[in-house]
Predict the 3D structure of the following.
Amino acid sequence: MPGTSREVRLAVRPEGLPEPEHFAVVQVPMPVPGDGEVLVRNRFFHVFPALRTLIGGSVKGAPFPGLRPGDTLYGKAIGEVVSAPPDAGVRPGDLVQHWLGWREYAAVPAGRWSPLDGTLPDPAAHLGQAAIAYTALTRDARLRPGDTVFVSGGAGGIGSLAGQIARALGAGRVIGSTGSPDKAKRLVSELGYDAAVLRGTRPIADQLAEAAPDGIDVLVDNVGGEQLQAAIAAARPGARFAIVGTLAGQLSPDLAGTTAPVEIDTFQLIVKGIEMRGFGSSAGPAADPEWAGRFGGWLRSGEVTFPHVRVTGIENAPRALHEMIGGRHLGTVIVEL
């Protein structure tokens, strides 16, 4: 056992988008587990867009606290148990999932970790956001066979799975948006999408009207902004919208990451009978124990893949966050230790 561990801290709150220099990788004493705590050596942790919101101070009512300079970043992680109390139910060498990522070692309190049982073929897939995509599609948007689905942010951690899951659930046509021509090609060739609209070229509304000439039934919205406006314009009567993310606000250099303003025509919501629901939590269909087995089955059969990028070394974690915010990668971004 080493005497020290490394962790990533917010060094200074940035004005605008965070850069690697706004973080510090520091060496700290090895955590000493208290009563009931499990000592874990992290193997992977998730780099996720909402960190921009946490760095900006978070949002009132959000489930996660904001970060202040000097605080250690956090997020979902997969780690190997180093030591555990006799009655913990896990032993050294077992893999567990918890929320004390962005550090090499963590003392995780009782009740804040869950064991991994091999249901998924790759432990890192537990860091993916398939449960969010599945819950948004089934609980919030109530996807029906044959529906036309639009997923904004189709190349992100949620979107890269949402298109595939919508296809597996029987969607008739699936359209995704992205900001990269290369990613647009991959959405169609690899990730179950029938068409892709490209941000930053022609208006999204015009492209979406061409990709879905009969309109859309379901929106999984990870972006907001212009893309939410375009989805409202393209909605069929009775369309169901699941509002999952706000990347247009979170990743804007002109905002703090804690607001996502957009102007919408509420007349269209009324006359079309559009249902719009904010995604609250995964405490829905994906919380059912059968969900993990279903997802694992999809992964093993190849019907669904887990698009992700692994960045090696905690010292490269700030760069990984910067690249994720800049849209360099497709799918989930993971730091591997």
About this structure: The CA atoms of residues 42 and 62 lie 26 Å apart. The domain at 130-278 is CATH 3.40.50.720 (Rossmann fold).
